[in-house]
């Protein structure tokens, strides 16, 4: 139980320290809070002003013809084992 209590106390001390640092530098705190919304607004503004958005919600595609491959009656399967015994037994004439 003391381990949990000591971790909780450490967390409270760390939160208090962070609060004091934020209070001691109000301009930095305001800048930290304003940068993400301003950056999002800039990106959204650039997105809608620089790039044209096309409305493609009711686009119909032409069908492609479906052709099946010609069936072959003879199939060849190649197998190359990676062993020295198989290499010594296979002779190319």
TrEMBL record:
The keyword Nucleotide-binding applies. GO terms for molecular function: ATP binding. Keywords: ATP-binding, Nucleotide-binding. This is ATP-binding cassette sub-family A member 3. The lineage of its organism: Eukaryota, Metazoa, Porifera, Demospongiae, Heteroscleromorpha.
């Amino acid at each position: 139980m003391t381990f949990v209590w000591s971790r909780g106390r450490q967390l409270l001390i760390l939160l208090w320290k962070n609060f004091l640092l934020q209070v001691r530098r109000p301009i930095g705190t305001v800048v930290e809070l304003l940068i993400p919304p301003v950056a999002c607004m800039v990106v959204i503004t650039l997105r809608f002003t620089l790039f044209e958005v096309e409305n493609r919600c009711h686009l119909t595609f032409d069908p492609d013809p479906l052709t099946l491959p010609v069936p072959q009656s003879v199939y060849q399967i190649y197998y190359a084992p990676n062993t020295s015994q198989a290499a010594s037994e296979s002779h190319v004439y």
